[in-house]
Amino acid sequence: MAVNMYDKQPDETLLQLIAAGDDVAFTIMYRRYEQHIREVALMYTKDPEASREIVQEVFRRIWEKREKLTEIKSLKDYLFIIARNLIFNQFKKAAQELAVRKQRLYETLETINDADFKVRNQECEFILNTAIASLPPQRKKIYQLAREKGLSYEEIATELRISRFTVKNQMVQALQSIRLYLLHHMHTLLPLLCISILG
């Protein structure tokens, strides 16, 4: 079959060809659905790199189990189910890792003395201040008005002459940026201790 003829084939035919080991049909399927799966993964993970990995894993599994594709009724639905399960497993793994890290933090806090805690707390404050300083000007200003001066979103909106929605959105992004900064710039246990400062 000529390569250009593959593009015209329905999913059912592609499934039969892929099941028989046709790598050209597999490539056509990949081109047909790669973007859709990536967009779905990105919608849930909010992480472009994680989304690309999910896409690669979806099609890797399709190829490895290609002999069973003749049993599939809807290729699009089947691909979505695989992607959905991978996303769910990723979230589950992240939750388990966070639970382990929290448990280790609790165990560590039980063993450190007051002097140790003061040193760690000072380190947290230093890196936290660095994270805040790295925020875009408006976002940093909103964070400081809310956390350091205790202003409400309405008060901040009035002072900066922006909408309350903008204040809330910028505050959410500020907290996300700070948490990510802490997780990337500190030891395994310290970020959890510092994040607790954020409330």
TrEMBL record:
It comes from the Bacteria. The keyword tRNA-binding does not apply. One of its GO terms (molecular function) is sigma factor activity. Transmembrane segments: none annotated. Residues 128-176 form the RNA polymerase sigma factor 70 region 4 type domain. Keywords: Sigma factor, Transcription, Transcription regulation. Residues 29-95 form the RNA polymerase sigma-70 region domain. Pfam families: Sigma70_r2, Sigma70_r4_2. The keyword Phosphoprotein does not apply. GO terms for biological process: DNA-templated transcription initiation. Belongs to the sigma-70 factor family. ECF subfamily. This is RNA polymerase sigma-70 factor. It comes from Chitinophaga barathri.
